[in-house]
From TrEMBL:
Residues 3-96 form the HTH arsR-type domain. Gene3D superfamilies: Winged helix-like DNA-binding domain superfamily/Winged helix DNA-binding domain. SMART domains: HTH_ARSR. NCBIfam families: HTH_metalloreg. It comes from Amycolatopsis halotolerans. Pfam families: HTH_20. This is ArsR/SmtB family transcription factor.
Amino acid sequence: MSVDNVEDRLDRAFTALGDPIRRALIARLSLGEATVNELAEPFPVTKQAVSRHVQVLEAAGLITRSRDGQRRPCHLNAAALEELTSWIDAYRLTREREFRRLDSILEETSALEKTKEQDR
């Protein structure tokens, strides 16, 4: 899998998650599968609008749809969400290491200042 494909998937996923309704749909699907009609219930938008949001999430690879008779339930794509969290975690861990290093330097500086004050 090439880096371009990973970056394209990340771009599509983050763009899709930029909409509050789509984030709410992801949150709802984290509880279990649901059809577009079921997903549309709590929103003050049409079922067609929710269907378009579902299509965007599907195109971004964040959800999948299956067929169960006449039902077409939507499901979260856990692997796609894991890819997002892995990408975010890489940056988070880097920042945490830098903050721990800064905390250590500040503690050393504070200890040196206390020692200087006690010597006076």
